[in-house]
Amino acid sequence: MSKFSVKKPYTILIAVLAVLILGVVSITKMQLDLLPEVNLPYLLVLTTYPGASPEKVESVVTEPLEGSLGTITGVKNVTSFSYENYSMVQLEFEDDTCLLLCILP
Question: What is d(CA 10, CA 47) in angstroms, rounded to the nearest whole number?
């Protein structure tokens, strides 16, 4: 094969250019079916309460959050976890719910 490439360098050059052109054309025509746009209907709220026991975090932070966040339109399911120093509330929304998120400092 090396003798052929030395004897016919223009043939090899044309073959490499053809492969490159076909690769560029293939990439530009490729559809993104393997990477669909997915909107996950979940919202996770994490709060911290340093030095508090799980019971205190649940009564002071988690339960009020569940009560207020559960009234949002389109909420399908509310799941919460209380741990030492922090709590986590997960909201699952209906599939057709549009969310506008505001992140507060």
Answer: 67
Domains contained in the chain, number: 1
Residue at 30 is within a domain:
no
pTM beyond 0.70, yes or no: no
Determine the residue type at 16: V
Write out the two tokens for 104. 């507060």
Is residue 103 in some structural domain? no
- What domain range is 77 assigned to? 42-93
| Residues facing 92 on adjacent strands | 42, 77
Which residues partner with 81 through β-bridges? 88
Q: Which tokens hold the place of 89? A: 């509330």
CB-based contacts of 82: which residues, under 8 Å, 6+ apart? 54, 55, 57, 58, 61, 62
Residue 87 located in a structural domain: yes
Let me know if 45 is exposed, middle or buried by CB neighbors in 10 A (0-12, 13-18, 19+): middle
Q: In this model, does residue 103 exceed pLDDT 60?
A: no
Structure-model confidence comparison of residues 29 and 33, the more confident one: 29
